[in-house]
Amino acid sequence: MKRNMKKLLGLLVLLTLAFTLSACAEQQKVPNEETYQEKSDRYVEMLSSMSPEELADQVSNLEENFEDFEQEVSLYPYIYGQGKFDFTAEAYLSLLKSFDANREELGAFVQLKEYEGGTEKDGEISYSAVYEFEKHDLRLTLLYDKNNVITTVTADPIYTTGEILEKAALNTVLGMGVVFAVLILICLIISCFGFIPAIEAKFSGKKKEAAPAAAPAAVPAAAPLAPVVEETDDLALIAVITAAVAASLGTSTDGFVVRSIKRKSNNKWKR
After folding, report:
1. Taking residues 56-77, what's their average pLDDT?
2. Contact between 127 and 141 (Cβ < 8 Å)
3. Which of 21, 36, 64, 163 is within CB 3.0–4.6 Å of 159 for a Cys-Cys bond?
């Protein structure tokens, strides 16, 4: 394991050196190089001379009134009667913000360390210089357009290989920690699913107890019983009456039919 770590560290160091050497090899001498060196020195001295409060206030003021600042930059020759502003409005604000963000990492300004040189491509010139500060060195790279106006600014602290590896390790640990924390949270949520049916049953039971008891169903009233007619007695009575009527009339029972029998209230037979 230790051998693998040593090999990995050695590989990273070699890659860093190769990248640095290739970057240095690309640098070349550009026309009027002293002018670009003088400008880089002037900008670093200007930034270093500003107090943190003053620099922060200027950044805040430019951000709030950026449109007015853009207009001032475009009308710079007419307002001040000479020359032109060295930066575009966006590049100048970027320079102030970069230095303000990295001021604690840099510390106090010490001196110029080296001019790394510049490159020229399609009429644009990129020039870099390194300045020594108490905590970390600063690499300032300025990109000039064809009109010699700075359009892009890069101002970053220079970290050692050990610091870069340390930051990479911290970022790795932080990322893995976040991943494991999320996985643990998901496991806890999934484990809580087993309690959901019991909780649901408990609440549903309370709802059933709180609901009023249903009224008993009304029992339908019994239908009145139809009077039972004693058909046998009626038939016998009809036969007797039919025979009596036929005897009194001197006829047979075929000549008439008894359809109904009605009992009179004032029956003479009762008398």
Report:
1. 93
2. yes
3. 163
